[in-house]
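quick q for whoever's on today - can somebody do inverse folding on this one?? i tried earlier but teh output was garbage lol. tokens:
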């Protein structure tokens, strides 16, 4: 007789095996010496047999503002609010070929599936990303209905004007060495502070920035040994960064150490 705990484990294993072990089919093969070998081949279970949803796919092309194909763009799906479909943690994604074509497989069926792309190296931002600072006006984002075991074809994604980038290096004011890491706060001019974006980043950091917005950036070293600082335009002294299409602004930010009170 099994101990009660062992019986529970055995029952669990039987249930799991019933779900994942496919149907076995026998086969035989005669070897040159006349012996008969008997074996088994397993047939792959259908997704619906193990509780998995039937999936669909989407095919299309990604082009730049002038209609030319974009190679190596990352294409993904999402719901209308930008979240992954079906409660997934990550979106399903793929990349375009040399002709800008893509095939996005394993898409969860839904009535409204938004299809978008990005290519940061060419300044094309992901407008479906939750922390996008400004989505271009009149932007056409393809929304399609995906059905089980069917392929949606003819989807065309056209990138808007290129965004800009900000690349910073946060250094100790005395040693000129990079600090360990930073906390940052991004705020849009004229927008309530509750909508500011807080996060952490390496001290040598680059971010793509939407066009048409002015951004203030507060920076604090994560070691607790330096004073806080903020972005300043190296030419004008303005505390607001404004991206220029297809350009990267590079700045050095120097943090002074916090002075210890004298006893």
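ok took a stab at it. sequence:
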């Amino acid at each position: 007789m099994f101990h009660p705990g062992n019986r529970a484990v055995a029952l669990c294993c039987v249930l799991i095996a019933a779900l994942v072990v496919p149907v076995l089919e026998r086969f035989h093969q005669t070897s040159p010496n006349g012996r008969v070998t008997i074996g088994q081949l397993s047939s792959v279970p259908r997704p619906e047999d193990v509780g998995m949803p039937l999936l669909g796919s989407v095919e299309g092309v990604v082009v730049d503002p002038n209609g030319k194909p974009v190679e190596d763009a990352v294409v993904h799906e999402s719901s209308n609010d930008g979240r992954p479909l079906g409660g997934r943690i990550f979106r399903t994604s793929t990349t375009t070929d040399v002709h800008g074509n893509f095939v996005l497989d394993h898409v969860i069926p839904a009535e409204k599936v938004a299809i978008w792309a990005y290519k940061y190296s060419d300044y094309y931002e992901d407008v479906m990303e939750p922390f996008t600072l400004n989505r271009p006006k009149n932007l056409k984002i393809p929304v399609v209905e995906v059905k089980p075991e069917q392929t949606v074809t003819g989807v065309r994604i056209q990138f808007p004007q290129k965004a800009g980038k900000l690349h910073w290096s946060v250094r100790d004011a005395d040693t000129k060495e990079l600090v360990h890491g930073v906390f940052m706060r991004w705020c849009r001019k004229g927008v309530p502070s509750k909508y500011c974006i807080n996060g952490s980043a390496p001290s040598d950091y680059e971010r793509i920035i939407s066009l048409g917005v002015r951004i203030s950036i507060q920076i604090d070293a994560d070691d607790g040994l330096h004073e806080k600082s903020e972005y300043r335009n190296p030419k004008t002294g303005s505390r607001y960064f404004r991206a220029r299409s297809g350009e990267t602004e590079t700045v050095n930010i120097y943090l002074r150490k916090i002075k210890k009170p004298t006893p």
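fwiw The two ends are 76 Å apart (CA to CA). also Residues 1-28, 36-41 have pLDDT under 50 and may be disordered. so keep that in mind when u check it
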